[in-house]
Amino acid sequence: MTIGENIQTIGERIRAAEQRFGRELGSVQLLAVSKKHPAAAIREAFAVGQHCFGENYVQEMTEKAAELTDTGIEWHFIGPIQSNKTKAIAVTARWVHSVDSLKVAQRLSAQKPASAPAINVCLQVNISDEASKSGVSPSQVPKLARQIALLPGLKLRGLMAIPAPEHEFERQRAVFAQVRLLQQNLNAQGFALDTLSMGMTDDMEAAIAEGATIVRIGTAIFGCRNAINTGKMALTNPL
Ligand SMILES: *Cc1c(COP(=O)(O)O)cnc(C)c1O
Questions:
Q1: Which is the closest atom of ligand 1 to the Cα of 202?
Q2: Rounded mean pLDDT, 172-182
Q3: DSSP code, position 234
Q4: Closest CA to 159 of 107, 204, 123, 202
Q5: Among the atoms of ligand 1, which is closest to the Cα of residue 201?
Q6: Ligand 1 atom nearest to 160, measured from its CA
Q7: N- to C-terminal Cα separation, the chain
Q8: For every residue of 162-218, which 3-state class applies, written as one string?
Q9: Assuming Cys at both sites, which of 62, 90, 105, 195 could form a disulfide with 111, CB separation 3.0 to 4.6 Å?
Q10: DSSP secondary structure letters along 121-146
């Protein structure tokens, strides 16, 4: 299967899930997660109409963005954020899904180039995995959302979650339902959050069932990632 064929297949899976779970057709956007895959693979996906790409590592995103400036790709940053790396993120990414502290949000707000549109921001919620260090605990989300909503240069769009791996569909769904309820509670308090960034290759359908508006798909598009990230991008397509 080529990358183009994989994207077509994922599109069909998304549309089937929209239909099956009563979601409006076209309400779920595909974010292609290209971490650890080379710029050439991204170009292949872009050639079949995929315009949004997610990256986890700042330097990798910056290097690929520099190689692909001719495309006008929309970059989404989805990885853990060290506060000393926010400048590069603010310059390159139109979306940041993984904001989990006021400090990071303040730096993105201050470092966004004046000429650039507001950065779209999601708060990453630590929904199921107590061991994970990323994400805000659900009880802290309303306070942080209120603080971030006041920052210039950022547009708070919604919530992002990476649940602990879970094989059973109904259990996947139960966790995503908690994220959806959190969003509903915020909107009942006056927010107008329109984004739920949730669902990956193995739990995409459950996420769509519970209201995902962006699914972040890597493996099903680009194949397996090399286990060892040498810091250099792979030169060969692992597919
Ligand atoms: C790697 C990654 C993905 C993609 O996961 P797949 O299982 O390869 O689809 C999605 N979201 C985040 C935050 C990731 O780090």
A1: 7
A2: 97
A3: P
A4: 123
A5: 9
A6: 13
A7: 8
A8: CCCCCCCHHHHHHHHHHHHHHHHHHHHCCCCCCEEECCCCCCHHHHHHCCCCEEEEC
A9: 90
A10: EEEEE--S-TT--SSB-GGGHHHHHH
The tokens describing 118, both together, are 């507001």
Q: What is the pLDDT of residues 210-220, one digit of tens each?
A: 999 999 999 99
* CA separation for the pair 36, 60 (Å, rounded): 8
Is 61 in a helix, a strand, or coil? Answer: helix
Spacing, Cα 115 to ligand 1 middle (Å): 31
Pocket of ligand 1 (CB under 6 A): 33, 35, 56, 78, 162, 200-202, 216-220
Pocket perturbation via mutation, ligand 1, pick of 3, 61, 76, 78 by most ligand atoms within 8 A of CB = 78
Ligand 1 center–CA 190 separation, angstroms: 31
State in Å: Cα 72 to ligand 1 middle: 22
Q: Which tens digits make up the pLDDT trace of 50-93?
A: 999 999 999 999 999 999 999 999 999 999 999 999 999 999 99
User: Which atom of ligand 1 is nearest to 200's Cα?
Assistant: 9
Q: Is the model's pTM score more than 0.85?
A: yes
**Domains, the chain, ordered by start:** 3-222 (3.20.20.10)
Provide the token pair at 82.
């060290």
Residue 82 CA to residue 188 CA, distance in Å, equals 32
Residue whose CA is closest, atom 6 of ligand 1?
Answer: 218
Q: Is the pLDDT of residue 159 over 90?
A: yes
